[in-house]
Every structure is written in structure tokens, then in C-alpha cells.
Amino acid sequence: MTDLILDLFRLNNRMINAGDKLVDGLGLTSARWHVLGTVITAGRPQPVAWLARDMGANRQNVQRIVNDLEKEGLLAFQPNPHHRRAQLVVLTDRGKQAYETAMRLQAPWVDMLAEGLQVEDLKTTHAVMRALRSKLEGNGDVEEQT
User: Cβ(70)–Cβ(76) under 8 Å?
Assistant: First the structure.
């Protein structure tokens, strides 16, 4: 298990670096791309705290990225009828275009990564990753075991 975790750390770093290179020409980073994708997949405007939860990320880090994307016109804020201070994050047309362009760049890249891998192996790996994430989100946190 420890070897798997160490390899996941290495893989995560390489994926972030590769993603950064892939979308650099769009003025994005992997983190910015991730935020845009989370806003899109949410299906409706959400506050930053909810986006951070969906990303499994720190709210303050997501807030900083959202603020930067808002300054660049890729995201905008809307009033939240349920909470005065927690504005809703919405994608602008410019943000949608940037995300769609990133995904067009991503398609051949992900095809290249998948080349030679078996679909069943990918499904099994995905299932293991989901199970580990579920444990960490539920009762597997380090603080709870000490």
C-alpha cells in the first residue's frame, strides 16, 4: 500500500506538470483548469466552499484561484440568495471557451496515455482509487486514527 501511495504522489506531480504544459498557451494551469472543470460539472452556480469540497481541496486555495480567474474574466460572481457573504461562482463565455479549448487539447493527450492499457485494468484502478478516496473522505483521516 505504501508503494502505491508513493507512486500516486509521483503520478499526481507528473500529471500536474504535464497538464500545466498542455494548457500553458491558454493562460491556464492545471489548478485553474481543474477549477473551471469543477464549475462546469457542478451544473449550477455554487459557492467556493462547495467547489472546494467537490475538488477535495482547501477552500482558501480554491478561493485564491477563483479570484484570479474572476479578474481575468473567466469566472464571475453572482449574489447567493441563501447566503449574503458566500457568492455563487459562474462561468463566463470566455471561461467556457478556455475550458473547451483545454479539453480539445486534452483529448489526443489522454488517448496517447491510454494507448496499450486494458479497459478492465483502467476500471479496476479507478475502483481502487474511488475506494481509497471514500475511506479518506469518511473514516480514514489520519487525525481520526491518532
Answer: yes
Q: Could you tell me the three cell numbers for 59?
A: 477552500
Q: What is the pTM of this model?
A: 0.86
- DSSP E strands: which ranges in the chain? 46-47, 75-78, 88-91
Q: Give average pLDDT by consecutive 10-residue segment, the chain, 146 residues.
A: 95 96 96 97 94 94 97 95 89 97 97 96 96 82 48
d(CA 82, CA 109): 41
Nearest to 38 by CA among 26, 50, 20, 25: 50
Q: For residue 90, give the C-alpha cell.
A: 459562474
Domains of the chain: 1-117 (1.10.10.10)
